């Protein structure tokens, strides 16, 4: 096998491993949410209230759906906000980032999980308890996974 094909194979395997890890994380989050829902329904039943079983609403037409924000977009918005405001509490930063993404036409589905992942980025540093700022040399372009052929 040529070295070029071997490199491509290795890159594809690395991307696959990242996708598998993301899938596992999402399945874990879903299982936790379903378990919490079941516990709440049990608690409601215990106090004599029937849990509501609302009809699922029809999904919006494809043309009406907003695209979900990516981790790179969330990180870019965080950098933008911290660049403008300096140090900021994580709670306020999360709220402003969500607002900016919504203004830019992005869905906030999975925003909380993406925001939490972004907090671990090396370009961010926790100054005081819960207050974040950029490191001395912020990354200007967040890294995105791409297949390099």
Describe the structure in brief.
Residues 44-67 are annotated as: Disordered. The protein is mostly helical and 149 residues long.
Describe what this molecule looks like in 3D.
- With 149 residues, this protein is mainly alpha-helical.
- The protein has two domains: 54 residues; 64 residues.
- A three-stranded antiparallel beta sheet has the order 1-3-2.
- The radius of gyration is 20 Å and the shape is extended.
- The mean pLDDT is 82.
* Fraction in helix: 40-55%
Biggest sheet: strands, sense, closure? 3 strands, antiparallel
**Total number of distinct structural domains:** 2
Order of helices and strands: HHEHHEE
Mean pLDDT: 82
Total helical elements? 4
Main sheet: which strands, in order across? 1-3-2
Number of strands: 3
Question: Structural class, from secondary structure content?
Answer: mainly alpha
Uncertain parts: none
Q: What is Rg?
A: 20 Å
**Strand composition percent:** 5-15%
């Amino acid at each position: 096998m040529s070295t070029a094909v071997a490199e491509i194979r290795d890159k594809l395997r690395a991307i696959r491993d990242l996708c598998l890890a993301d899938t596992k994380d999402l399945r874990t989050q879903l299982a936790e949410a379903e378990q919490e829902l079941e516990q709440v329904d049990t608690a409601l039943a215990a106090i004599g209230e029937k849990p509501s079983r609302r009809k699922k609403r029809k999904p919006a037409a494809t043309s009406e759906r907003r695209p979900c924000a990516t981790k790179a977009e969330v990180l870019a918005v965080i950098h933008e906000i911290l660049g403008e405001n300096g140090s900021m509490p994580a709670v306020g930063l999360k709220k402003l980032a969500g607002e900016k993404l919504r203004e830019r036409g992005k869905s906030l589905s999975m925003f909380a999980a993406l925001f939490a992942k972004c907090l671990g980025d090396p370009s961010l540093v926790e100054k005081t308890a819960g207050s974040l700022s950029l490191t001395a040399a912020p990354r200007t372009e967040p890294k995105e996974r791409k297949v390099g052929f």
